[in-house]
Structure formats: structure tokens, C-alpha cells
Write a sequence for this structure.
């Protein structure tokens, strides 16, 4: 579904990504993580053909977006749900019109189904009754949730979420997190790639994490194993955010016993 093979990307003389390789199969749920500025957003964008890169090869749904004609890119875009950090809503359209527009252009859904989808998704993101509001009448967190609803309205085969919860208050973050976790379990066939610098978010809905650091993929695998067997840097990066958590909450995350024993029970 998604493949990145030996990708190199520079901005001017600054080489951001070196020899990035990973493959994601149909139905896999994966988190792309790494420190701020490591190139997560750039990676999502280059998979979509939105930023050029120098070396290597990418494909999404079997298509090399960088080297495809516009009409082929558009066909592929119809099958992908994308939510970038700013929500990306059209300011001159209401919430309902934003969602409806996406479905009219990207799906075959009839009007009745479109209206039902809008209702269901707005409830799922805990924004029922906001159909007639314009983006300027929504808070940042609400816009983000509408953006996620819109990304899902088209029943995409692949969903790419960039920092779905950054900058949001804890309550809104939890709503979004739950929604994406539910999605990950319910939509078995949908391939999900979430880019985030937040480890706690990343491990909530994906078993497999890909870690990018200093321009390279430094780890790719199930996070529970990496937490125990990763390199020192990987272990540190993953655990810093987790060891401050409440024990009950840590258990809820299904952290490995060995890890809990080491960081909580020993205290
Ligand atoms: N269009 C651009 N022109 C020049 N430099 C850029 C451009 N876009 C990104 N960069 C640089 O590339 C680096 C990686 O940016 P990117 O947004 O891909 O990282 P990120 O991992 O998504 O970061 P964050 O966690 O803050 O979202 C940053 O140093 C950024 O300044
Ligand atoms: Mg980013």
C-alpha cells in the first residue's frame, strides 16, 4: 500500500532524509515517529507527490506519485484520506459543505448516504450539530476534528494523519485519540499511517512504529519489543514520555511487564 525505497531528500544544502526505506501492507496501522523536525511531514508529503525528492522511489496504492500524470494522481487522491496539521478546511464552506464537497468529488455516494455519513462522522468526532458552522466559528481543535472527519468521509483505503493531536487540549486530544484507535480496530482493511512526535499517541493505535532520527530510519518494529530491545537512543526516546505516567494508565497501555517492573515497581 505504501512503499518508500532508498529515499533521499534535501532542502537546499541541508540533507534531511537519507536512504529512507519502509513498506506498509494493506490493513497495517503504523506510527511514524521521531523528534520535532526529523522530517515526518516531509515524508508524508513526498509519498503524496507534494514535495519533490532527489533519490529513491516511493509508491502509494501502487503509484509513484512524483512521476505520475496529474489525472492519475487525482485518481489516487480519491482513495486516500489525508489530514494535515491545520485541518485544511475551505473557509468559505460550512462544515457540512466541506465534508459533502469531498464526497461529491471523491466518491460515488448518493445524497442520502452523504448526509448520513456527515451525521455519523460529526458524532464520532463529538461535534454533532455543527453542520451549518463556518470554519471561522470553530476553535482550532474543532477544525482539526472536522479535518479528520473529512479525511474519513470518503472511506479511504489509506489514511494519513499528520500530528492529529498536537497543540490541542487534553480533552480534545483524548477524543481524537479514541476515535483513531476505534478506527484502527474497526476498519481492518484500511491502512493507517500516523505521523507524530508524541510517543504516547503513537503507541495507542499502532503496534508497529517507524522511528526517524538524524535523517534515517533507526528502528522499525513492534514498539513493545523496541522498548526492551531497541538501541539505547530508541529505548530512551520511547521511555522518556512513558515513565512519568500513572501506573494504572501505564498498565492500560499494555506496557511490557519487564518495563513496568523496572520503572514503577522498583520505586
Ligand atoms: N519547504 C521547506 N523548505 C525548507 N526547509 C524545509 C521545508 N519544509 C521543511 N523544511 C525543514 O525540514 C525539516 C523537517 O521538517 P518536517 O516538517 O518534515 O519535520 P517534522 O518531523 O514533521 O517536524 P514536526 O515534528 O515539528 O512536525 C525542518 O528542519 C524544516 O525546517
Ligand atoms: Mg510535522
Amino acid at each position: 500500500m505504501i512503499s518508500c525505497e532508498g529515499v533521499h531528500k534535501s532542502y537546499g544544502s541541508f540533507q534531511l532524509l537519507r536512504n529512507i526505506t519502509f513498506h506498509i501492507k494493506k490493513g497495517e496501522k503504523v506510527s511514524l515517529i521521531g523528534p520535532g523536525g526529523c522530517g515526518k511531514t516531509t515524508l508524508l508529503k513526498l509519498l503524496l507527490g507534494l514535495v519533490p525528492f532527489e533519490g529513491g522511489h516511493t509508491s502509494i496504492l501502487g503509484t509513484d506519485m512524483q512521476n505520475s500524470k496529474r489525472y492519475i494522481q487525482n485518481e489516487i487522491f480519491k482513495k486516500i484520506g489525508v489530514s494535515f496539521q491545520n485541518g485544511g478546511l475551505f473557509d468559505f464552506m460550512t462544515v457540512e459543505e466541506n465534508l459533502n464537497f469531498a464526497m461529491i468529488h471523491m466518491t460515488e455516494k448518493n445524497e442520502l448516504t452523504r448526509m448520513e455519513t456527515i451525521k455519523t462522522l460529526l458524532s464520532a468526532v463529538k461535534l454533532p450539530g455543527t453542520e451549518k458552522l463556518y470554519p471561522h466559528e470553530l476553535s482550532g481543535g474543532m477544525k482539526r476534528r472536522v479535518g479528520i472527519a473529512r479525511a474519513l468521509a470518503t472511506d479511504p483505503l489509506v489514511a494519513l494523519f499528520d500530528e492529529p493531536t498536537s497543540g490541542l487540549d487534553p480533552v480534545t486530544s483524548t477524543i481524537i485519540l479514541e476515535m483513531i484507535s476505534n478506527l484502527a480496530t474497526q476498519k481492518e482493511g484500511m491502512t493507517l499511517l500516523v505521523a507524530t512526535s508524541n510517543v504516547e499517541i503513537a503507541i495507542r493505535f499502532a503496534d508497529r512504529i517507524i522511528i526517524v532520527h538524524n535523517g534515517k530510519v533507526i528502528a522499525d518494529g513492534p514498539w513493545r519489543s523496541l522498548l526492551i530491545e531497541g538501541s539505547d537512543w530508541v529505548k530512551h526516546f520511547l521511555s522518556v514520555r512513558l515513565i512519568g505516567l500513572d501506573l494504572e494508565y501505564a498498565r492500560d497501555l499494555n506496557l511490557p511487564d519487564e518495563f513496568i517492573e523496572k520503572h514503577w515497581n522498583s520505586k
About this structure: The mean pLDDT is 91. DSSP finds eleven helices and nine strands in the chain.
